[in-house]
Protein backbone atom coordinates (compact mmCIF):
# COMPACT_ATOMS: atom_id res chain seq x y z
CA UNK A 1 0.00 0.00 0.00
CA UNK A 2 1.40 3.33 -1.06
CA UNK A 3 1.30 6.19 1.37
CA UNK A 4 1.37 9.77 0.14
CA UNK A 5 2.83 12.09 2.76
CA UNK A 6 3.06 15.86 2.57
CA UNK A 7 5.09 18.11 4.82
CA UNK A 8 3.20 20.93 6.48
CA UNK A 9 4.51 23.58 8.82
CA UNK A 10 2.51 25.42 11.41
CA UNK A 11 5.27 27.84 12.28
CA UNK A 12 4.61 31.50 11.40
CA UNK A 13 6.65 33.05 8.65
CA UNK A 14 9.77 34.90 9.65
CA UNK A 15 9.34 38.65 10.07
CA UNK A 16 10.93 40.89 7.52
CA UNK A 17 13.64 43.06 9.00
CA UNK A 18 13.81 46.58 7.65
CA UNK A 19 17.07 48.36 8.29
CA UNK A 20 16.77 52.06 9.01
CA UNK A 21 19.84 54.17 8.72
CA UNK A 22 20.41 55.97 12.05
CA UNK A 23 20.49 59.74 11.96
CA UNK A 24 23.89 61.13 12.92
CA UNK A 25 23.79 63.80 15.64
CA UNK A 26 25.79 66.13 13.39
CA UNK A 27 23.08 65.80 10.78
CA UNK A 28 20.50 66.72 13.41
CA UNK A 29 22.61 69.72 14.38
CA UNK A 30 22.92 70.87 10.76
CA UNK A 31 19.15 70.50 10.37
CA UNK A 32 18.52 72.57 13.51
CA UNK A 33 20.86 75.32 12.29
CA UNK A 34 19.24 75.42 8.86
CA UNK A 35 15.78 75.54 10.44
CA UNK A 36 16.77 78.40 12.76
CA UNK A 37 17.68 80.63 9.82
CA UNK A 38 20.60 82.06 11.80
CA UNK A 39 24.20 82.44 10.65
CA UNK A 40 26.81 80.09 12.09
CA UNK A 41 28.84 83.07 13.31
CA UNK A 42 25.84 84.28 15.37
CA UNK A 43 25.23 80.79 16.79
CA UNK A 44 28.90 80.46 17.75
CA UNK A 45 28.79 83.83 19.51
CA UNK A 46 25.64 82.87 21.42
CA UNK A 47 27.26 79.57 22.42
CA UNK A 48 30.43 81.33 23.57
CA UNK A 49 32.69 79.37 21.22
CA UNK A 50 34.87 80.31 18.24
CA UNK A 51 33.27 80.08 14.76
CA UNK A 52 36.08 77.70 13.76
CA UNK A 53 35.10 75.37 16.60
CA UNK A 54 31.49 75.23 15.41
CA UNK A 55 32.65 74.61 11.84
CA UNK A 56 34.83 71.67 12.94
CA UNK A 57 31.98 70.24 15.02
CA UNK A 58 29.68 70.35 11.99
CA UNK A 59 32.04 68.97 9.36
CA UNK A 60 34.71 66.78 10.96
CA UNK A 61 33.76 63.31 12.15
CA UNK A 62 37.17 63.12 13.81
CA UNK A 63 36.36 66.04 16.09
CA UNK A 64 34.98 64.97 19.45
CA UNK A 65 33.54 68.06 21.14
CA UNK A 66 33.05 68.13 24.88
CA UNK A 67 29.55 67.71 26.26
CA UNK A 68 29.69 71.31 27.50
CA UNK A 69 30.22 72.55 23.93
CA UNK A 70 27.25 70.49 22.71
CA UNK A 71 25.07 71.93 25.49
CA UNK A 72 26.12 75.48 24.60
CA UNK A 73 25.33 74.99 20.92
CA UNK A 74 21.96 73.40 21.71
CA UNK A 75 21.01 76.26 24.04
CA UNK A 76 22.08 78.84 21.45
CA UNK A 77 19.63 77.16 19.06
CA UNK A 78 17.00 76.85 21.80
CA UNK A 79 17.05 73.12 21.08
CA UNK A 80 16.86 70.07 23.32
CA UNK A 81 20.18 68.33 23.97
CA UNK A 82 18.26 65.05 24.32
CA UNK A 83 16.78 65.42 20.83
CA UNK A 84 20.14 66.44 19.38
CA UNK A 85 21.81 63.29 20.75
CA UNK A 86 18.77 61.11 19.93
CA UNK A 87 18.18 60.12 23.54
CA UNK A 88 15.13 58.01 24.38
CA UNK A 89 12.16 60.19 25.26
CA UNK A 90 13.34 63.13 23.12
CA UNK A 91 12.00 62.08 19.73
CA UNK A 92 10.62 65.52 18.85
CA UNK A 93 12.68 68.56 17.95
CA UNK A 94 11.81 71.99 19.28
CA UNK A 95 10.05 72.86 16.02
CA UNK A 96 8.05 69.62 16.11
CA UNK A 97 7.13 70.25 19.77
CA UNK A 98 5.92 73.72 18.80
CA UNK A 99 3.72 72.25 16.06
CA UNK A 100 2.37 69.65 18.48
CA UNK A 101 1.51 72.37 21.01
CA UNK A 102 -0.38 74.24 18.31
CA UNK A 103 -2.42 71.13 17.51
CA UNK A 104 -3.17 70.50 21.20
CA UNK A 105 -4.19 74.14 21.72
CA UNK A 106 -6.49 73.99 18.69
CA UNK A 107 -8.12 70.80 19.99
CA UNK A 108 -8.54 72.35 23.44
CA UNK A 109 -10.26 75.34 21.88
CA UNK A 110 -12.58 73.11 19.87
CA UNK A 111 -13.51 70.95 22.88
CA UNK A 112 -14.13 74.00 25.07
CA UNK A 113 -16.03 75.81 22.36
CA UNK A 114 -13.55 78.69 22.34
CA UNK A 115 -12.68 80.50 19.16
CA UNK A 116 -9.10 79.79 18.03
CA UNK A 117 -8.78 83.52 17.31
CA UNK A 118 -9.10 84.48 21.00
CA UNK A 119 -7.14 87.53 22.05
CA UNK A 120 -3.71 86.91 23.53
CA UNK A 121 -1.56 89.16 25.73
CA UNK A 122 0.84 91.31 23.78
CA UNK A 123 4.33 89.69 23.76
CA UNK A 124 7.09 91.91 25.09
CA UNK A 125 10.34 90.07 24.29
CA UNK A 126 12.22 89.77 21.02
CA UNK A 127 15.54 87.97 20.59
CA UNK A 128 18.37 90.45 20.02
CA UNK A 129 21.88 90.16 18.61
CA UNK A 130 23.45 92.44 21.23
CA UNK A 131 26.85 91.52 22.67
CA UNK A 132 26.60 90.08 26.16
CA UNK A 133 28.65 92.08 28.69
CA UNK A 134 31.34 90.05 30.42
CA UNK A 135 29.77 90.65 33.84
CA UNK A 136 26.61 88.85 32.71
CA UNK A 137 28.39 86.25 30.59
CA UNK A 138 30.21 84.92 33.66
CA UNK A 139 26.81 84.62 35.37
CA UNK A 140 25.70 82.27 32.60
CA UNK A 141 23.96 84.69 30.21
CA UNK A 142 23.98 83.32 26.68
CA UNK A 143 20.90 85.00 25.20
CA UNK A 144 19.79 88.61 24.79
CA UNK A 145 16.23 89.89 24.36
CA UNK A 146 14.95 93.36 23.59
CA UNK A 147 11.92 94.28 25.67
CA UNK A 148 8.90 96.40 24.77
CA UNK A 149 6.10 98.06 26.69
CA UNK A 150 5.95 98.77 30.42
CA UNK A 151 4.56 95.52 31.84
CA UNK A 152 7.82 95.06 33.81
CA UNK A 153 8.47 98.70 34.72
CA UNK A 154 8.18 97.88 38.43
CA UNK A 155 11.22 95.60 38.06
CA UNK A 156 13.22 98.35 36.36
CA UNK A 157 12.79 96.82 32.88
CA UNK A 158 11.65 99.55 30.53
CA UNK A 159 10.60 99.79 26.91
CA UNK A 160 13.60 99.20 24.62
CA UNK A 161 15.84 97.68 27.31
CA UNK A 162 17.94 94.60 26.56
CA UNK A 163 17.84 91.78 29.11
CA UNK A 164 20.48 89.05 29.34
CA UNK A 165 19.27 85.52 29.94
CA UNK A 166 20.84 82.41 31.43
CA UNK A 167 19.21 79.37 29.75
CA UNK A 168 17.34 77.18 32.24
CA UNK A 169 15.05 74.21 31.64
CA UNK A 170 13.56 73.43 35.05
CA UNK A 171 10.97 75.72 36.62
CA UNK A 172 12.04 75.07 40.24
CA UNK A 173 15.12 77.29 40.02
CA UNK A 174 13.25 79.91 37.99
CA UNK A 175 10.13 80.08 40.18
CA UNK A 176 9.65 83.59 41.55
CA UNK A 177 12.34 85.02 39.26
CA UNK A 178 12.18 87.33 36.25
CA UNK A 179 12.31 85.05 33.22
CA UNK A 180 11.98 85.00 29.47
CA UNK A 181 9.52 82.35 28.32
CA UNK A 182 7.46 81.28 25.34
CA UNK A 183 3.70 80.78 25.26
CA UNK A 184 2.74 79.13 21.97
CA UNK A 185 4.71 81.27 19.50
CA UNK A 186 4.95 84.46 21.59
CA UNK A 187 7.79 85.38 23.96
CA UNK A 188 7.45 87.29 27.23
CA UNK A 189 9.48 88.83 30.03
CA UNK A 190 7.58 88.12 33.23
CA UNK A 191 7.92 86.86 36.79
CA UNK A 192 7.32 83.10 36.87
CA UNK A 193 4.83 81.79 39.43
CA UNK A 194 4.38 78.00 39.56
CA UNK A 195 2.05 76.50 42.15
CA UNK A 196 0.66 72.93 42.19
CA UNK A 197 1.27 72.52 38.49
CA UNK A 198 -0.36 75.84 37.57
CA UNK A 199 1.78 78.31 35.62
CA UNK A 200 1.20 82.04 35.92
CA UNK A 201 3.22 84.88 34.42
CA UNK A 202 3.15 88.01 36.57
CA UNK A 203 3.82 91.56 35.45
CA UNK A 204 5.37 94.27 37.57
CA UNK A 205 2.75 96.82 36.61
CA UNK A 206 -0.73 96.74 38.12
CA UNK A 207 -2.28 97.59 34.75
CA UNK A 208 -1.30 94.15 33.44
CA UNK A 209 -3.17 91.14 34.90
CA UNK A 210 -1.46 87.74 35.36
CA UNK A 211 -1.27 85.46 32.33
CA UNK A 212 -2.69 82.01 33.11
CA UNK A 213 -0.87 79.35 31.06
CA UNK A 214 -1.59 75.68 30.44
CA UNK A 215 1.64 73.75 31.06
CA UNK A 216 1.69 72.21 27.57
CA UNK A 217 1.66 75.72 26.03
CA UNK A 218 4.53 77.00 28.20
CA UNK A 219 8.24 76.79 27.41
CA UNK A 220 10.83 78.29 29.78
CA UNK A 221 13.77 79.92 28.01
CA UNK A 222 15.81 81.19 30.94
CA UNK A 223 16.35 83.49 33.92
CA UNK A 224 17.12 87.18 33.46
CA UNK A 225 20.50 87.88 35.10
CA UNK A 226 21.00 91.46 33.92
CA UNK A 227 19.86 94.29 31.71
CA UNK A 228 21.01 97.58 30.26
CA UNK A 229 20.95 99.15 33.73
CA UNK A 230 20.49 98.14 37.37
CA UNK A 231 17.84 95.42 37.66
CA UNK A 232 15.55 96.10 40.61
CA UNK A 233 14.75 93.25 43.00
Describe the structure.
By secondary structure, the chain is an alpha+beta fold. It has 2 domains: 23-118, lambda repressor-like DNA-binding domains (434 Repressor (Amino-terminal Domain)), CATH 1.10.260; 119-227, Ribbon (Umud Fragment, subunit A), CATH 2.10.109.10. Helix content is 30%, strand content 21%. It has 8 helices and 8 strands; from the N terminus they run ααααααβαββαβββββ. The protein has helices at residues 25-36, 40-47, 51-59, 67-76, 81-84, 94-112, 134-137, 171-174; strands at 125-127, 143-147, 162-167, 178-183, 186-195, 198-202, 211-213, 218-227. The chain has an 8-stranded antiparallel β-sheet. Helix 2 crosses helix 3 (51-59) and helix 2 packs across helix 4 (67-76). The longest helix is centred in the middle third of the chain and has 19 residues, at 94-112. The radius of gyration is 24 Å and the shape is globular. The termini are far apart. The model is unreliable at 6-21 and 114-118 (pLDDT under 50).
Q: What portion of the residues fall into strands of 2 or more residues? A: 15-25%
CATH class of the largest domain: Mainly Beta
Work out the helicity level: 25-40%
User: What is the helix tally?
Assistant: 8
Structural class: alpha+beta
Distance between the termini: 104 Å
Major beta sheet, specifics?
A: 8 strands, antiparallel
Global mean pLDDT? 78
Which CATH-level-2 architecture of the largest domain? Ribbon
Q: Unreliable segments (pLDDT under 50, ≥5 consecutive)? A: 6-21, 114-118
CATH domain fold name of the largest domain: Umud Fragment, subunit A
Q: Biggest sheet: strands side by side, in what order?
A: 1-2-3-8-4-5-6-7
Total strands: the figure is 8
CATH superfamily of the largest domain: Umud Fragment, subunit A
Choose one word for the global shape.
Answer: globular
Order of helices and strands: HHHHHHEHEEHEEEEE
